[in-house]
Amino acid sequence: MVWGGIAYGYRTPLVVIDGNLNAKEYREDILGPHVVPLLQTHNVITMLHQDNATSHVARVNLEYLQNHNVDFIDDWPSKSPDLNPIEHLSDNLDRRVRRRPNLPNNVNELRAALLEE
């Protein structure tokens, strides 16, 4: 699983997570080290947008965001990739990796290619 965050003029590092992402891992590996610091550091970013993935909308994670004074959009339509700007970035990243002269042959090579792109 690959996660990244974008905002006008800002981006997070690309985070590659082995396997599926559950609510606890999302909070400990994404929200805590990446999302909350980004939102607390850059005052121009006022609201978090995330899709309706189960780990994103888990009650414990929504409470975590509220406890850290993070405003978020909580009524986003589910399964709406055309409305989510990160999906367009993910598509671009996918196309760039597929255009490489040597396609990745395993997970470690894919991880390296994604991080390079």
List the main descriptive attributes of the protein structure presented here.
117 residues, Nucleotidyltransferase, domain 5, two-stranded antiparallel sheet, 5 helices, 48% helix, globular
Report on the architecture of this protein.
With 117 residues, the protein is mainly alpha-helical. Strands 1-4 form a two-stranded antiparallel ribbon. Strands 2-3 form a two-stranded antiparallel ribbon. It has one domain: Ribonuclease H-like superfamily/Ribonuclease H (Nucleotidyltransferase, domain 5, 2-Layer Sandwich). Helix content is 48%, strand content 7%. The chain is globular.
Low-pLDDT runs: none
Summarize model confidence as the mean pLDDT.
Answer: 86
The termini sit apart by 16 Å
Number of strands: 4
Separate helix tally: 5
Structural class: mainly alpha
Q: State the strand order across the main sheet.
A: 1-4
Supply the CATH architecture: 2-Layer Sandwich
The CATH superfamily is known as Ribonuclease H-like superfamily/Ribonuclease H
What is the H/E order?
A: EEEEHHHHH
Largest sheet data: 2 strands, antiparallel
Number of domains: 1
The helical percent reads: 40-55%
Label the overall shape.
Answer: globular
